[in-house]
Design goal:
- The longest helix has 56 residues.
- Helix content is 78%, strand content 0%.
- It contains seven helices and no strands.
- It is mainly α.
- It has one domain: de novo design (two linked rop proteins) (Up-down Bundle), CATH 1.20.1440.20.
Length: 195
């Protein structure tokens, strides 16, 4: 009789741990999905930047250094993003690298748009206006995807820290995930893309 009670209790514990494991796996996958949404929007931005540079290049012949710095910042951001992809998702170091590259890229784009104020023909260019609108839309999508990602990270990290998950989360390979936070105050400012 006692053996059945012990087996029943063990079965309940095993089912509980399996349910907890599955819940954490589900949350980890939601974090990965939220990251992939950021990744898609970052790639879109990176794809738009060469078009922006080409459009601006003809008008801003005296601003070659600004354009080169944006191209270099884009290259660093792409490399940081690719490192995250290679590692299977953001880690503390790779996310910091990406955030730093993104801050530099944001400053460079801000410089281009600020300098474009000095070029009335550029401001009136249909191609420039279209790129401006696409970049603005992409920035909004990145902000929304970042918010969604951070929400999923908070839920996942909280679930790992709650009892009884805290007892088994690390055993099953679940560790806290870093949020996508912009530390650079200048980078937190929206890129001004108005003409």
């Amino acid at each position: 009789m006692w053996i059945w009670i012990i087996l029943g209790v063990l079965l309940i514990i095993i089912l509980f741990v399996v349910g907890l494991y599955n819940r954490l796996v589900n949350m980890r996958n939601q974090v990965k999905n939220a990251w992939s949404q950021i990744d898609v929007q970052l790639q879109r931005r990176y794809d738009l930047i060469p078009n922006l540079v080409e459009t601006v290049k003809g008008y801003m012949s005296y601003e070659k250094g600004t354009l080169e710095s944006v191209v270099q910042a884009r290259s660093q951001a792409v490399q940081a993003r690719e490192e995250i992809q290679r590692s299977g998702g953001p880690t503390e170091g790779s996310l910091k690298d990406l955030l730093g590259a993104e801050a530099t890229l944001q400053r460079g784009l801000g410089n281009i748009f600020a300098l474009s104020e000095n070029y009335p023909q550029l401001r009136a260019s249909e191609n420039m206006q279209r790129l401006q609108e696409e970049l603005s839309t992409t920035e909004n999508k990145i902000a929304f995807a970042r918010q969604s990602y951070n929400d999923q990270v908070m839920i996942y990290n909280t679930a790992q820290q709650q009892f009884p998950a805290v007892l088994v989360a690390s055993v099953f390979g679940h560790h806290p995930v870093d949020m996508y936070e912009v530390a650079d105050q200048e980078a937190k400012k929206a890129v001004k893309v108005s003409f």
